[in-house]
Amino acid sequence: MVxxxxxxxxxxxxxxxAALAAADPGRAxxxxxxxxxxxxxxxxxxxxxxxxxxxxxxxxxxxxxxxLGDLIDGGEIIVPYGQAGPGLRxxxxxxxxxxxxxxxxxxxxxxxxxxxxQADELTLVVVLISGGxxxxxxxxxxxxxxxxxxxxxxxxxxxxxEIGELNAVRKHLSRVKGGRLAEFLSPATTISLIISDVxxxxxxxxxxxxxxxxxxxxxxxxxxxxxxxxxxxxxQAVLRHLVAGSTGKLPETPKAxxxxxxxxxNRIVADNRSALAAAQQATTGYGLKGExxxxxxxxxxxxxxxxxxxxxxxxQQTRRTELPICLLSGGETTVTVHGKGxxxxxxxxxxxxxxxxxxxxDIILLSGGTDGRDGPTDxxxxxxxxxxxxxxxxxxLDPAAFLAENDSYSFFREEGGLFVTGPTGTNVMDIxxxxxx
Length: 437
Description:
alpha/beta; 2 domains; 17 helices; 18% strand
């Protein structure tokens, strides 16, 4: 492959977009509508409702109405601010806060619950679930305020808690998470179409598993607070609630085998693995040999960045006859916040990668969130190569200092490495594309 680094950047971006296309929520839902129509017909249902929540809920709902609009009697979706649009006729859309829940989310969830309790044995309910649903579907347990749930979520995010740990706590503060939405929907027949944004596609973790049996417990939620030394910082009402649940004074979330799940069918319709497979297929069009390393990249973002960089350098040095190669990986890392900067896990991973490959030619990385947003920023992630650190230093930027302050966004904004897609309407975690010439 003979290409400039500018051309290489375009190539890794196009490979990333190929992964995004495979995770298109509308296409994923459209592929299920034939079986949904058959299920409605064979089950002799009299009503069909659609509810949903998450970053992909709007395009999912659009696809559902386009294919099954004649069957749908009504519904509601809850989406992040700015992600609703025109086109829905029967399904109402409500915008709410993400990643921190807000009052709009509470109002939307109450309306969704009111729809759910109207469903009976002659109702087929299609639930559209995608990443971000945990924050958007919000109904705190009695005695816990929205502000207290927000504070608890912020504490866990700031401590670097993994998504499963965060959701274990949120499920036990909620009236709808951890299988409890299925309780409201019973005795209707429920089919959940799910776009997975968690490693391993665990149904009880995606959007906090509102229609899936829950593996977590009150005791486990308390253990998460202890692991990150947050008992003293957590709101007292939250702590009292979790302690009461752990001592059997409150009902646990429904577990596997509970009668409430007899009429529930949870289906994964798109995930990180399918996105990586599409990216691998796309590499051949650019003369690259695509290799998928893992769909389960996790842990500290900067450590993952260093690992990927060392992997790329080793391949460049030992497999020259096989070059050019494109390494692909996906998953969801975490960032333990120590500084006061702004950034996200993909940008932090990319900055650590850049420091590790400083001065090494012919290697380029793109790390981006498939939802188009990395942390509280307008970027999906960043692109880094062997000259990234040099370009930063020429602008008076010390990459080590920016990394220490968790300020990767500011570094890449000045250096020129930000990768901006805008909201994508989907979320299957993060994708890393590493091209090695």
